[in-house]
């Protein structure tokens, strides 16, 4: 019998270390902190209004993810992007996202394509305004929703890690509006396949998307 005292889960409250981590991670993803740039721990602590302890905890977590590197004399810097590995990143992304898309299609209800469609509408609105600033995050949100719908946290986490690597790479090699429109069109194919209820069609649309973007990045046309 369930003890009623514990029937209501506690609200999730982020620690200071988590808030610092989220702030730094978003800055790295968005290009506010560039590869090779030094992170001034004292300044960061003052600006965020926290002690050095949560800052150190956040940096340690980011270092375990390969996003920052600690040097004996240079301090903490944003890790460089290994451009020679980008092809491997896309190969991994293809394997993981195709699997996640297939599983998501098997579990999908009417709300999933609707949620993805709303992200698509925001991406189109950005393109129509001639702006690309929000497109990287909206693109990540599209894939975040799809991978989460697979029902497996590990697939969502791996997708997030790969997307982060690609976003950091694109900070130094940004894509043009033409390719962003191609991304939106490829997303449309995934959404339409979801509406048909055919998991294999969804998986194939996801594969075509990752292969197309891999070819674009590796060819250096971005």
Task: Record the SSE blueprint.
Layout: H1 16-30, E1 38-39, H2 41-48, H3 52-64, E2 68-71, E3 75-78, H4 86-107, H5 111-128, H6 135-148, H7 153-172, H8 177-196, H9 199-219
Antiparallel strand pairs: 1-3, 2-3
Helix pairs in contact: 1-3, 4-6, 4-7, 4-9, 5-6, 5-8, 6-7, 8-9
End-to-end C-alpha gap = 59 Å
Strand content: under 5%
Averaged pLDDT, please? 88
**Strands, count:** 3
Strand order, largest beta sheet: 1-3-2
Unreliable sequence segments: none
List the secondary-structure elements in sequence, H or E.
HEHHEEHHHHHH
Computed CA radius of gyration, to the nearest angstrom? 19 Å
The helicity comes to: 55-70%
Structural class: mainly alpha
Quickly count the helices: 9
What general form does the structure show?
A: globular
**Sheet with the most strands?**
3 strands, antiparallel
What would you note in describing this structure?
There is one protein chain. The protein is mostly helical and 222 residues long. It is built from nine helices and three strands, in the order αβααββαααααα. Strands 1-3-2 form a three-stranded antiparallel sheet. A hairpin with a 3-residue loop joins strand 2 and strand 3. Helix 4 packs antiparallel against helix 7 and helix 5 packs antiparallel against helix 8. The protein is globular. It starts with 15 loop residues before the first helix and ends with a helix. 27% of the residues are buried.
């Amino acid at each position: 019998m369930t003890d009623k005292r514990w029937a209501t889960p506690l609200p999730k409250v982020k620690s200071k270390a988590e808030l610092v981590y989220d702030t730094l991670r978003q800055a790295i993803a968005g290009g506010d902190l560039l590869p090779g740039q030094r992170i001034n721990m004292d300044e960061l602590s003052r600006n965020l209004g926290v002690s050095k302890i949560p800052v150190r905890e956040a940096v340690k977590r980011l270092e375990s993810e390969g996003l920052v590197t600690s040097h004996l004399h240079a301090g903490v810097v944003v890790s460089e992007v290994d451009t020679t590995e980008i092809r491997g990143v896309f190969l991994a992304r293809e394997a993981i996202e195709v699997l996640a898309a297939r599983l998501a299609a098997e579990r999908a209800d009417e709300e999933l394509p609707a949620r993805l469609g709303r992200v698509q509408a925001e991406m189109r609105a950005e393109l129509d305004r001639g702006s690309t600033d929000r497109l990287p995050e909206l693109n990540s949100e599209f894939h975040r929703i799809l991978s989460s719908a697979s029902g497996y946290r590990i697939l969502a986490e791996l997708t997030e890690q790969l997307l982060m690597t690609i976003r950091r790479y694109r900070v130094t090699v940004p894509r043009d509006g033409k390719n962003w429109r191609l991304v939106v069109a490829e997303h449309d194919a995934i959404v339409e396949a979801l509406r048909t209820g055919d998991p294999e069609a969804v998986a194939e649309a996801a594969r075509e998307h990752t292969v197309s973007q891999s070819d674009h990045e590796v060819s250096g046309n971005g």
